[in-house]
Write a structure and sequence with these properties.
- This protein has 23 helices and nine strands.
- The protein is α/β, with parallel strands linked by helices.
- Helix content is about 60%, strand content about 5%.
């Protein structure tokens, strides 16, 4: 290819990757719904969007390194200490039992349906066990299932992504080893590959642990050090033994997330941006390599495989995983109707299929197009039916707000109790241990860990947080937290108004409408509460008592409307008002 063709192809891949994600964000649909057809159509219409021609032999190794970065980032999110409570049993079963049942079922079905050899079918089955959070998360945000379902499915997607990558790498080396003569030689090849990946991951994790624990690195340098370590270790392992770098990358991520004495930051903006870009580039590039000719004899048989996976295998996995638990039958049925495949399936199929074809494994050339069809079909099926199925089963979360109250002063705890008595499910967070004890003593739910982890990302998805209210007695903390969270939280973020004559670290005005009415800033509210004012719940139908300040309205459908410095929400029939009484006045 000429330099002009290479530049044009690289530019088109980048534009399609980011453009598809941008349009998907505006439409509030999973980006994969646009990335896969965009890459396939571009690869069909032009030879410029062809990564195999653009990169030549470097394409497959670069895909492997890109997947290693994705799996490392996924591993960082697997703090196993957070997997507890009533979801543990179901999630653990969905991961290990679901992976086993899906792997075996897909492998056995692929042999007669798609016409693969058993070795290629075993590889395809291992690839199809994953259900990544990059697909599940956006679907669940759109569906808004109940809190239990949200937690179970997000945790399953977060765990099965890296663990599926490990399984895929193990099976890949096992399939290659099966071509060697002699059982001893096969076992030696398989366990040799596993040992290289595990050893590389252990060395990389130890190196990063030492660097991040004992050196003072800023956010940029800290994340670039991690990127360099992951790529270097994965590349070294792959150079020694093909595709062992994926095992090493996952081991590094999971180890760093769980090693003592090292608190990984809740926000990793560098990696988040990098992984998002890599996902887009991989989907466009991989789907561009799938030609209409390769799908010709695979498309229809693969749809039969998809039907079996969707209608039989996944419901069976859900039934086995929720057996003898307190999960209601309607929620069990919805778990059985949510297992889309995502980027790890596509990337591992692209990485492994080339080597298997070169090794002469029968039917290995069908692995990538079959995986492509499974991804497209499952995303379409679940994406188009998840909302009506959830509605029919009655497992969609109501429109009721779930606010996260940040702060632990006595009046904040009283506000949390008032909102709960008005029918809202309230979550609270505070830093000082005394305030955290006060929250739990009041019987309110306390968010564990860091504030950023509780208010953003997968943790906020699991908890169903809709609003964040910054109510601490530190004006600078409120302002800085607002500036950080306003770009990260999908719902509203509000803060207390600081004193007008404030000389804080940041400007008093941070672009938010401060909570509560004019003049009711943080010092004034604290002074009134100390003087005997209290927070009470009052039905609007009975009229607002004189001298009371409105703080919030809880609408009949459970939506929370806050009073701000620009004005209070207009009361309506059936609303419940959260009011601040005059000082030294008993609640009505």
């Amino acid at each position: 290819m000429t330099s002009s063709q290479i530049l044009l192809g690289a530019g088109l891949i980048m534009a399609l990757a980011v453009g598809s994600q941008l349009v998907a964000s505006l439409l509030r649909i999973p980006a994969i719904l646009l990335l896969l057809p965009a890459g396939f159509i571009a690869g069909t219409l032009t030879d410029d969007v062809n990564p195999e021609k653009l990169l030549g032999p470097a394409f497959s190794p670069l895909v492997s390194l890109a997947v290693a970065v994705i799996l490392y980032d996924a591993g960082l999110g697997l703090d196993l200490r957070h997997l507890k409570g009533h979801t543990r049993t179901v999630v653990v079963r969905l991961v290990w039992l679901g992976a086993l049942v899906t792997w075996v079922s897909a492998a056995l079905l692929a042999v007669p349906i798609i016409g693969m050899s058993l070795s290629a079918a075993v590889m395809l089955g291992a690839i199809l066990v994953v259900s990544g959070p990059t697909v599940v998360g956006p679907l669940l945000n759109f569906v808004r299932p109940t809190e239990r379902l949200q937690r179970v499915l997000v945790w399953e997607g977060s765990l099965i992504d890296p663990l599926g990558g490990i399984l895929g790498a193990f099976v890949f080396h096992g399939v290659l080893a099966s071509g060697q003569h002699g059982l001893v030689s096969q076992l030696a090849m398989f366990w040799g590959s596993a040992a290289i990946g595990l050893a590389g991951g252990a060395v990389g994790a130890a190196l990063l642990w030492l660097l991040l624990r004992h050196l003072t690195l800023d956010e940029v340098l800290g994340t670039t050090v991690q990127l360099a370590a992951v790529v270097s270790v994965a590349a070294a392992c792959d150079a020694f033994r093909d595709d062992t770098g994926l095992i090493a990358a996952v081991v590094m991520g999971v180890a760093l997330a769980n090693l003592p004495g090292l608190d990984m930051p809740a926000r990793r903006p560098f990696f988040e941006a990098l992984v998002s870009l890599i996902i887009g580039l991989l989907f466009i590039s991989i789907s561009a390599t799938v030609t209409p000719q390769s799908l010709h004899h695979v498309a229809l048989p693969t749809l039969g495989l998809v039907a079996a996976l969707v209608l039989v295998v996944r419901p069976l996995v859900a039934a086995l995983s929720t057996a003898r638990t307190d999960v209601p039958h309607r929620e069990r049925w919805f778990i059985g109707w949510m297992a889309p495949r995502g980027i790890v399936a596509a990337a591992t199929a692209s990485t492994f299929s080339v080597s298997l074809v070169q090794a002469g494994i029968g039917g290995a050339q069908k692995i990538l197009p079959a995986t492509f069809m499974v991804i497209v079909a499952t995303v379409l099926v679940y994406g188009l039916t998840a909302i009506p199925v959830a509605g029919r089963l009655g497992v969609r979360r109501s429109a009721r707000s779930r606010p996260l109250l940040v702060g632990g002063d006595p009046w904040v705890i009283e506000l949390g109790r008032a909102l709960r008595s008005a029918g809202l499910d309230v979550l609270m967070w505070a830093g000082p241990d005394g305030q955290r004890r006060g929250i739990t003593d009041a019987g309110l739910d306390l968010a564990p860990g860091e504030l950023l982890a509780a208010a953003t990302g997968a943790e906020a998805e699991r908890e169903g947080i809709t609003d964040v209210l910054l109510l601490t007695d530190e004006d600078d903390f409120n302002a800085l937290a607002f500036m950080t969270l306003k770009e990260r939280v999908e719902g509203s973020v509000h803060q207390l108004a600081p004193p007008i004559r404030s000389h804080g670290v940041v400007a008093a005005s941070t672009g938010s409408e401060a909570l509560f009415g004019a003049g009711l800033d943080r010092p004034e509210l604290a002074q009134r509460y100390a003087g005997g004012a209290r927070i009470v719940v009052h039905r609007v139908d009975e009229g607002i008592p004189a001298g009371h300040d409105m703080l919030f309205l809880v609408r009949p459908d459970g939506r929370l409307a806050a009073a701000t410095e620009t004005g209070a929400p207009t009361p309506g029939g059936g609303d419940i008002a959260i009011l601040l009484t005059p000082p030294a006045m008993s609640p009505p």
